[in-house]
Write a structure and sequence with these properties.
It is a single chain. By secondary structure, the protein is of the alpha+beta class. The protein has 11 helices and 20 strands. It has one domain: 3-Layer(bba) Sandwich (FAD/NAD(P)-binding domain). The strands form 3 sheets. Strands 1, 2, 3, 10, 11, 12, 13, 19 and 20 form a 9-stranded mixed beta sheet that branches. A hairpin with a 6-residue loop joins strand 15 and strand 16. Bound molecules: flavin-adenine dinucleotide.
Length: 446
Amino acid sequence: MTRYTAKSLPVQRGPAAWNAILGPQTPRSVLEDNQSADFVVVGAGFAGLTAARRITQLEPEARVVVIESGRVAEGAAGRNSGFMIDLPHDLASDDYAGSGDDHKMIGLNRQAIDFARAAVDEYQIDPNYFDQVGKVNGAASEAAEAHNKSYAQHLVSLGEDSQTLDREQMHELTGSRHYISGLFTPGTVMLQPAGYIRGLARGLAGQGVRIFENSSVTGFARDGEGWLVQASKGTVTTSKLVLTVNGHLESFGIERDRLLQLFLFAVMTPELGREELTRLGGQPRWAVTPSDPMGTTMRRIDSSQGGNRIVTRTCATLRPGMVATQADLKRAACVMQRKFDQRFPKLAGIQMEYQWAGHLCLSLNGVSVTREIDAGVYSGCVQNGLGTARGTLTGIAAAELACGHNSPISQHFSTEAQPKRLPPQPFQKIGANAVLRWKEWKARRD
Ligand SMILES: Cc1cc2nc3c(=O)[nH]c(=O)nc-3n(C[C@H](O)[C@H](O)[C@H](O)COP(=O)(O)OP(=O)(O)OC[C@H]3O[C@@H](n4cnc5c(N)ncnc54)[C@H](O)[C@@H]3O)c2cc1C
């Protein structure tokens, strides 16, 4: 009998701050009995909840179950920086310019944004959680400025708008004198990621999708024509299974030694008081990605998004075992405090309220894994660090494959190459972490 067993389950390090700042959410049931469904979706992140929504669109009568290991919005979905980016954003490049068909990728990313916007409208998700304000690539060094210039030229060649901000405009925006210039692009949507994900889950539940939390899927096995999905305390029999577990695809023995299991880190200030906000200056909301992909992302949010706070994100560590250590988080938190203090000397030393790690998954050749893994088992995984948009797309594609529906989205993702094989251990871990530290050092100003 064909059986897939999970060798490891998600382990979170630190709180999902975006979720924490929204206050408590009503707990959902744990899967504790034996149920049946037409579709089971494993993982309630961007890909999983999108897949569930797409299934309900294509097959409104279908019985859909979503099974999540933790709580909704407590995984990477509540731990990211919330940039839903329309343009090429190749994290492996020096300046984000893509190496593939950028026109096609932009078109797909914008379809992801449209899909998310339609969900926001239909499920009446707070528009503050889905804010189409664009973003700025901040430059703090001449090298970073050169990255921005080359990226701007690339955008011109694609017929895309961008606008250069000078030192003063960057100061007016952020209140920081750290940046010497910036490149604004208008199409990025800034999410309150946990707010958006909670809203998706609430909307789906309202449409009859059964969502189980704190229910890890420990394996699945062929059961006649369908599959028996085993969770920690219950089971579901189903004819179609959709795996949207990002890097944990490898835990089920799929694409073994082909996926880079990476952790990123972030910190968030406490709610800033009136006096601190006056010292800070700048606009109440802004979002700055570094011009060098290995630099530091900064974001300011306001009271309608969970408080007047600043979020700092930097550092990356490869952890093939899919668990970030306390030492990883401690090191990253120290680096981020330093980055924050450099940018905001008037607020230097402020104690961060939240520090956390989040799991993401990349392939060496930048492809996702969206295909039929086994008869009736589909995956929408491996988002290459861009899961708000890419996860939405692979979720759509996996659902469409499961429903036998063809579209340019499912066509694109299901025909991608297989992830390239990684170098063997320990060379992979040592080599990748050495490269990451070197890139981090190179981007130290940014
Ligand atoms: C600090 C940080 C900043 C980031 N910033 C951005 C950004 O600005 N923009 C962007 O696009 N991306 C960003 N990312 C990446 C983004 O968060 C991910 O790419 C995205 O969350 C992937 O979506 P997903 O649905 O594929 O996977 P996930 O969000 O990881 O969801 C998978 C879900 O599956 C669940 N799961 C796994 N195994 C099991 C199991 N056995 N049983 C049941 N459930 C299981 C997990 O608990 C998880 O909730 C960032 C990530 C981090 C960590």
